[in-house]
């Protein structure tokens, strides 16, 4: 704790989550010393910093962003934004990724965050230490490196740590028997930048999540022949020309042919994995006991707090959510825990809560790997945290507009980004279909 009795909080990562954490910490100078935000790259924005290269940066660190050149957002700006900082009025609802990066830079300007970010500083280890006068008798040693230069290592002590290192950078590739026999180009969407290099090629895209669908559409525009292979029910909305569907690939035969679950086969030139990412927290000391099993990060009370170390917060690991507002809610909840406005239950009670929550989800048929996918439950989760922490919940129209966009997207994936939304004074909203006019 600093001499003034204010809590010192380290934030790992200056993506949207880390910036949001810093914005809220700075808004409470009564309780918190200015935060230290560690960012390994030279930029804020994380995912939204488009990088033409694939592989590694010059300093040897792996490229973080999975952004592709022509990406436009899949959530309308009216609900994608942080609730206390709207996107510019002049922009359409679905913006190009460069606008999101600018938006995050404006967020830093507006909330004066720049001075608190240490760029080019990679967090190498975070370990708990017992201290007499710390928050709940606990503090954290945070060691950082100057890029990859291990000789320039520094350690600072903090009362709490908010981990905001993102989870769309370490490609997950499912184990498919015989994969090493595939003779064409294997790639993950993390390394996809634009469609042109794949023009006219035959491609099997594995996974029909948002990236899989988006990339299939981009490939269709350059006359690639795409088989969208996935385990969901067949999509019923119109697909772009040249895109067909197939069940998941279950094996690769000796001659490199892909075999689908229904027995059909294909021998594409490219096999692209749109299969998501692994969670990794390489800097967390193993004593903290955070485990990642089948895409579930646990044990975390409210998907955020390890019960044994309640001054560590893993922000933004939930999936199928509206990220920026989610970070806004989680950050305020963290502050309410640290400033005591919400009194955390005992360690045993938190562990029981986690156990019951996971058991209840499993009983509803949710597989372990989908437990962090909150989807429509995110709104109850957000409201619950706001209620516990005693702060403003999201405006009422938020969930409704977001959920409607999901319906429009499922019905008409080819055109939904042509819609524009207007939020009305009474917090209702309306949609205009501008397709063909843009
Ligand atoms: P990130 O943006 O990944 O930021 C993490 C930061 O932590 C990075 O800057 C990284 O350099 C830094 N870092 C990591 N490790 C360390 C370390 N050890 N030391 C120091 N710094 C570290 N969301 C939407 O709302 N709308 C969309 O349309 C949308 N489209 C998307 C499209 C793609 C292709 C992807 C991949 C994601 C998309 N998302 C979208 C989700 C997006 O990831 C979130 O909106 C959000 O940007 C995640 O922010 P974050 O801060 O959690 O992580």
What topology does this entry show?
Elements: E1 9-12, H1 16-26, E2 36-38, H2 77-80, H3 97-110, E3 117-118, E4 121-135, E5 138-146, E6 149-158, E7 160-163, E8 170-171, E9 185-188, E10 202-206, H4 210-220, E11 225-229, E12 243-246, E13 249-252, E14 258-260, E15 265-266, E16 270-273, E17 277-278, E18 291-293, E19 296-298, E20 312-314, H5 323-338, H6 347-363, H7 378-389, H8 397-411, E21 419-423, E22 429-433
Parallel strand pairs: 1-2, 1-7, 2-3, 7-20, 9-16, 10-11, 10-16, 11-12
Antiparallel strand pairs: 4-5, 5-6, 8-17, 13-14, 14-15, 18-19, 21-22
This protein binds flavin-adenine dinucleotide.
Description:
- By secondary structure, the chain is an alpha/beta fold.
- It contains eight helices and 22 strands.
- The protein has helices at 16-26, 77-80, 97-110, 210-220, 323-338, 347-363, 378-389, 397-411, and strands at residues 9-12, 36-38, 117-118, 121-135, 138-146, 149-158, 160-163, 170-171, 185-188, 202-206, 225-229, 243-246, 249-252, 258-260, 265-266, 270-273, 277-278, 291-293, 296-298, 312-314, 419-423, 429-433.
- The strands form seven sheets. The protein has a five-stranded parallel beta sheet, covered by helices on one side.
- The mean pLDDT is 94.
- Flavin-adenine dinucleotide (FAD) is lined by residues 12-18, 38-41, 46-48, 64, 66-67, 71, 73-75, 80, 122-123, 164-166, 168, 211, 283, 316, 323-324.
């Amino acid at each position: 704790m600093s001499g003034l009795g204010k809590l010192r909080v380290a934030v790992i990562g200056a993506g949207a989550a880390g910036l949001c954490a810093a914005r809220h910490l700075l808004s409470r100078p009564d309780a918190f010393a200015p935060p230290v935000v560690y960012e390994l790259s030279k930029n804020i924005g994380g995912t939204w910093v488009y990088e033409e290269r694939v592989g590694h940066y010059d300093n040897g660190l792996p490229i973080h962003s999975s952004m592709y050149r022509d990406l436009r957002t899949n959530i309308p700006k009216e609900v994608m934004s942080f609730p206390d900082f709207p996107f510019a009025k002049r922009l359409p609802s679905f913006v190009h990724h460069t606008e999101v990066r600018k938006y995050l830079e404006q967020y830093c300007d507006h909330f004066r965050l720049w001075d608190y970010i240490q760029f080019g500083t990679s967090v190498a280890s975070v370990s708990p230490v017992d201290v007499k006068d710390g928050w709940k008798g606990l503090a954290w040693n945070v060691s950082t490196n100057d890029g990859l230069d291990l000789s320039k290592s520094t350690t600072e002590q903090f009362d709490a740590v908010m981990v905001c290192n993102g989870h769309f950078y370490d490609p997950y590739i499912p184990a498919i028997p015989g994969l090493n026999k595939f003779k064409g180009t294997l790639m993950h969407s993390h390394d996809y930048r634009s469609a042109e290099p794949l023009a006219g090629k035959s491609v099997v895209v594995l996974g029909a999540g948002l990236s899989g669908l988006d990339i299939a559409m981009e490939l269709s525009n350059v006359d690639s022949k795409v088989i969208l292979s996935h385990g969901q029910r067949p999509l019923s909305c119109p697909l772009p020309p040249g895109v067909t569907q197939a069940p998941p690939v279950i094996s690769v035969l000796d001659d490199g042919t892909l075999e689908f679950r229904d027995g059909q086969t294909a021998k594409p030139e490219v096999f692209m994995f749109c299969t998501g990412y692994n969670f990794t927290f390489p800097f967390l000391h193993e004593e903290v006991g955070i485990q990642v099993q089948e895409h579930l990060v646990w044990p975390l009370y409210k998907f955020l707090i390890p019960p044994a170390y309640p001054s560590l917060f893993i922000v933004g690991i939930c999936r199928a959510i509206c990220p920026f507002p989610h970070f806004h809610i989680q950050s305020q909840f963290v502050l309410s825990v640290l400033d005591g406005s919400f009194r955390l239950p005992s360690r045993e009670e938190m562990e029981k809560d986690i156990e019951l929550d996971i058991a209840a989800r499993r009983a509803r048929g949710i597989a372990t790997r989908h437990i962090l996918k909150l989807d429509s439950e995110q709104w109850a989760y957000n409201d619950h945290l706001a209620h516990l922490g005693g702060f403003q919940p999201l405006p009422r129209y938020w969930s409704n507009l977001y959920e409607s966009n999901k319906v429009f997207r499922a019905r008409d994936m080819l055109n939904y980004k042509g819609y524009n939304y207007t939020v009305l004074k009474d917090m209702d909203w309306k949609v205009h279909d501008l397709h063909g006019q843009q």
